[in-house]
Amino acid sequence: MRSLRIATMLWIGISAFYVSTVSAQSYPNRPIRVVTNEAGGDSDLQMRLVISNGLPELLGQSVIVENRPTVVVGELVAHAAPDGYTLITYGGSLWNAPFLIKTAYDPVKDFTPITILTSTPQILVVNSSVPVNSTRDLIALAKAKPGILTFPYTGPGATSNLSAELFKYMAGVSLVGVRYKGTPQSINALMGGEVQVGFLLPTAAVPQLKSGKIKALAVTTLQPSALFPGLPTVASAGLSGFATGALGALLAPAKTPTAIINRLNQETVRVLNKQEVKDRLSALGIEVVGSSPQEAANLIAADMATIGKLIKDVGIKGD
């Protein structure tokens, strides 16, 4: 009887392996959907750029971007079938949200990383009326006038919010956050002088810098960025170790077969390494990464450790 049970278990295991292997070998045989948040956001833009530069041709199937409300994107993909036909492209708010709110998914257990698509620094900017020309000047002004300078943010855990909170924490200054409905409203507030200081992603900052209504003080990478020559780092103003930014990742539901993950990684990275893709993203201040699945998992884990500690140390609360 015991031998029969062992034989049955072996047969089930072999059958599951066979089905998984066959599935991976025939993958994909129908359209793939990639779920992300709002249309026009960085995650949406990056995936559409990858698709328009040949991902469907390399995979032999259509790849469709589906925009869904932010609050349901993670849950939808986490609970999708792990067959490679429902993916998610998103940034750090996906895996850092559980530090702030209760989510219907586990960012580690419910997803398998495929690749880190991109890494995007932020730019520390001020309204042009603020009488500072460097990060050190800004720190000095904030210390001289505690609680007077304000910054915009779109919600707890947003990259702009986390950067501002880290800056306050490390510089020992008091800045007051003002919440806005979205990024466009935040930028308008900065340009109009309703708020004075901001941490913006390049896609939002670069077009506005040309207007002269805001000015750039520093970039948030640890080392000077080749994408922004001549712009110093925030860290160089005496805030050693200061580094924030946004990773863009492509992930699948957990338990997606390794062969499918590897195929998606191979073809996606192949597109990312095209010079026209790098040039297009570089013009927007976005750096192509194109990591392996394991490297992606390591980068996400490191980001979670850093942000999780910040949220705990500073006491940031979710809605």
Polypeptide structure, described:
The chain is of the alpha/beta class and 319 residues long. The protein contains twelve helices and eleven strands. The protein has helices at 2-26, 42-52, 55-59, 70-78, 92-96, 135-144, 159-171, 183-192, 202-209, 258-272, 275-283, 293-314, and strands at 32-36, 63-67, 86-90, 111-121, 123-127, 150-153, 176-179, 197-200, 214-219, 245-253, 287-288. It has a six-stranded mixed beta sheet, sandwiched between helices. Helix 7 crosses helix 12 (293-314). It is globular, with a radius of gyration of 22 Å. Residues 4-20 have low confidence and may be disordered.
Task: Set down the secondary structure blueprint.
Layout lengths: L1 H25 L5 E5 L5 H11 L2 H5 L3 E5 L2 H9 L7 E5 L1 H5 L14 E11 L1 E5 L7 H10 L5 E4 L5 H13 L4 E4 L3 H10 L4 E4 L1 H8 L4 E6 L25 E9 L4 H15 L2 H9 L3 E2 L4 H22 L5
Parallel strand pairs: 1-2, 1-3, 6-7
Antiparallel strand pairs: 3-10, 4-10, 4-11, 5-8, 5-9
Helix pairs in contact: 7-12
Number of helices, where a helix is a run of at least 4 consecutive DSSP H or I residues: 12
Q: What is the β-strand count?
A: 11
Could you say which structural class the secondary elements and strand pairing correspond to?
A: alpha/beta
Shape: globular
> What's the story with the biggest beta sheet?
6 strands, mixed
Helix content: 40-55%
Give me the strand/helix succession. Answer: HEHHEHEHEEHEHEHEHEEHHEH
Mean pLDDT: 89
Question: How many angstroms does the end-to-end distance come to?
Answer: 57 Å
Strand order within the widest beta sheet: 2-1-3-10-4-11
Q: pLDDT under 50 segments (min length 5)?
A: 4-20
> In percent terms, what proportion of residues is strand?
15-25%
CA-atom Rg in angstroms:
22 Å
